[in-house]
Model the fold of this input.
Amino acid sequence: MAHKEFTYTRPIAYYETDAMGVVHHSNFIRMFEDARVAWLRERGVAQTHAPYSDVVYAVVDATCQYLKPLRFGDFAKVRMQAQGEGAKVRFRYAIYKNDSELSCTGTTLHVAIDKNFRITKPPTELVSVLKEEHWTEIWP
Amino acid sequence: MAHKEFTYTRPIAYYETDAMGVVHHSNFIRMFEDARVAWLRERGVAQTHAPYSDVVYAVVDATCQYLKPLRFGDFAKVRMQAQGEGAKVRFRYAIYKNDSELSCTGTTLHVAIDKNFRITKPPTELVSVLKEEHWTEIWP
Amino acid sequence: MAHKEFTYTRPIAYYETDAMGVVHHSNFIRMFEDARVAWLRERGVAQTHAPYSDVVYAVVDATCQYLKPLRFGDFAKVRMQAQGEGAKVRFRYAIYKNDSELSCTGTTLHVAIDKNFRITKPPTELVSVLKEEHWTEIWP
Amino acid sequence: MAHKEFTYTRPIAYYETDAMGVVHHSNFIRMFEDARVAWLRERGVAQTHAPYSDVVYAVVDATCQYLKPLRFGDFAKVRMQAQGEGAKVRFRYAIYKNDSELSCTGTTLHVAIDKNFRITKPPTELVSVLKEEHWTEIWP
Done:
């Protein structure tokens, strides 16, 4: 039984743009995080995010493919899916410009670490949540 | 006996610009901090900066007057002076565009706080350093 | 006849925090901007914001007083008021932590400039809007 | 005839850290850019960077593998190599913590675009530079 599709929408901030007039490419990685945090909040496990838990999921890998620039005045709609991969979890993202045009896709891979940044067992609340999540076949 | 004039120079990063083609106004506050950190390092008291000390100087007030925009390709030269004000310390800054034109001026006021964000006695190493510092009459 | 009180609320992003575990002081300046942009949008004059207009209001002065830290997990509620000062406009801000405790206050002063960053006459749509705005006596 | 190894070193800024006490993962993408810009400057072709040229190389893909956290007080040493791939150019990066421990690796892929964000022929100065560049077999 799949969770409902998750989307997160927010306006582009002016300080996210650069001298080409578009959102700087580093800020898409930040929008991925905004979506992950909103997803954790919706799933009721926001307390597992750093720095509120002794065990957190750290980012060990990130990728981003840029297709269409976003500008100030646009809204970014982030679709996101999660998938457990053993002790790891992989998220994938698709950001749309104003709900219609695909602006970028990307992924992040996370591993559970403790306060000393050593790999450890993931937080049980999140493991439970991840059992209900999976990537769909068709994406984006 | 006054300390020698302190200056800190660094290139403008592309990600610091915005869609007007100039450095976003929030980033001048960050350049002030870059200069403060370089100043602490030069004075040999970088270990008093958060998060490395139990007692640190937190920012309680910041001001910035914007005179001339900075662009990607420019170098920012930050002049800075410090002055003890009782248990507080006030820094003032003047940022120049490529060593010549005044781009902005500003100030920050800091108070010593402990790990619980309570006001406390300032770090003794910094107090010693501040005894040698003062604002010049002519500025900028 | 006064416009209704304007407030803008958004969650703190994780990337806005620093190694002290609190929102970095430069990011309050960015929250001021987020509130200004939301205010322009509500007033129906978002098109006067850079880079969409030939004449825009540039920031020439900013101040910020920090009272209480914000953390990841908090929501920032920004109250904001605008006031015309001749050809200039001054905004003032009060940011609350989770709707209750005052976290910071601040101001920004803006002047109208053209595409060449020369001072010019302000956009007429905004002048009309500003005629209806004023600072209240009691603040914050 | 290979160009000499390129490295770029700068201190970690305090505002680049997050509430875990380490550099936020999005900022490694920004350090990649800092290194690219320094590389362009050293090669004498900084004027081909946006927004100074009608034809620029836009980022279309970025990857980052995070191995070891960086903290305030650390210096990031970025090693970088460039390689032409037809009309595209791919950079790869290895960031070291204080010159010794590998902190992260990554890549960016760039295509030439014109002022209207349409794919176009790359700037000739950069094409000349890229003829002298190549990835080494051993990396990092």
About this structure: Chain C has a mean pLDDT of 95. The radius of gyration of chain C is 15 Å. Chain C touches chain B through 25 residues (CB under 8 Å). The CA atoms of residues 84 and 130 of chain C lie 6 Å apart.
